[in-house]
Write a structure and sequence with these properties.
This protein is of the alpha+beta class. It is built from four helices and five strands. The protein has a five-stranded mixed beta sheet with strand order 1-2-3-4-5, with helices on both faces.
Length: 144
């Protein structure tokens, strides 16, 4: 298995992986090929795929110049518990560090037990002093 930077040419395989994993929160705009292309252009150094026979793992991560954010991380169920997710996280964290990013955040759905256990093992802590809020500004956005 090799870990390499994600490119837009990986999109179809990455999207197939995302929809095969329970607990992913995708939408029709940000997670479209056009949306991911825009994201990769802005964050070319922080997104990675794990490749063996196919794309078997992916991490979509970016930053605003101050904080890093991890958006979508997935590993094929049959390849889990082989440190692939941990290696993807490590690659992104190293990339953030090289870019001068000092802190990284992420959001996990409360009912995503597998995801929450994974992120706890990666050293990410729960913040109980925050209320997460968002607002959709594009009426065309729909959850997938």
């Amino acid at each position: 298995m090799i870990i390499r930077k994600m490119t837009i040419e990986d999109y179809d395989a990455v999207y197939e992986l995302w929809i095969s994993c329970t607990g992913m929160g995708l939408n029709n705009l940000d997670d479209s090929k056009e949306g991911i292309h825009k994201f990769l252009k802005r964050n070319p150094e922080t997104c990675f795929v794990a490749v063996q026979n196919n794309i078997d793992g992916v991490i979509l991560a970016g930053h605003d110049g101050r904080r890093g954010y991890i958006y979508h991380t997935a590993v094929r169920p049959e390849y889990r518990n082989q440190n692939i997710g941990s290696e993807l996280v490590s690659e992104s964290m190293n990339a953030f560090e090289k870019l001068g990013i000092n802190k990284v955040a992420l959001v996990v759905f409360e009912n995503n037990q597998i995801g929450n256990v994974f992120w706890e093992k990666q050293g990410f802590t729960v913040r109980d002093d925050l209320i997460y809020r968002n607002k959709t500004i594009n009426p065309k956005m729909k959850k997938l």
